[in-house]
Automatic annotation (TrEMBL):
It holds the Pfam family OsmC. Coiled coil: none annotated. This is Unannotated protein. InterPro entries: KH_dom-like_a/b (IPR015946), OsmC/Ohr_fam (IPR003718), OsmC/Ohrsf (IPR036102).
């Protein structure tokens, strides 16, 4: 998996992933132009989206019609002495049985983004000096 980010202006950046282009920016009160979500907001969106897709795929394989699903993710980044905290709210249809809800809750924690965030993370960084256009 690969994402490439290129500065557009100020804090606005174009993110290219496969054949898709997204915009990242900072809110106006942080010096940006608010033309897109901030990188941290995208992280919350990635986790919420992954949870939603994972439980929908699982339900589909089980033949469960779960209809509309909504996942909300609020998070507080780590500060000195406290870990990053993700608060996830799964909004599932009322008609699901307790067993289905329990199983979907377990499956939600197995989405790839959730597992990546809770696992050990390593960074390999390098600097390349290149001539950048503009």
């Amino acid at each position: 998996m690969k994402a490439t980010v290129t500065r557009q202006d100020a804090y606005r950046h174009a993110v290219r992933i496969r054949n898709h282009e997204l915009t990242l920016d900072e809110p106006i009160d942080e010096g940006g132009t608010d033309t897109g979500p901030s990188p941290l907001e995208m992280l919350a969106g990635s986790l919420a989206g992954c949870v939603a897709v994972t439980i929908e795929m699982y339900a589909s394989r089980k033949g469960w019609d779960i209809g509309g699903v909504e996942v909300q993710c609020d998070f507080t980044p780590a500060e000195r002495g406290t870990p990053t905290t993700f608060d996830l709210v799964l909004r599932l249809p009322e008609g699901l049985s307790d067993e289905q809800v329990e199983r979907l809750t377990v499956i939600a924690a197995k989405c790839p983004v959730h597992r990546t965030l809770e696992g050990e993370v390593m960074f390999r960084e390098r600097v390349e000096r290149v001539s950048l256009a503009g």
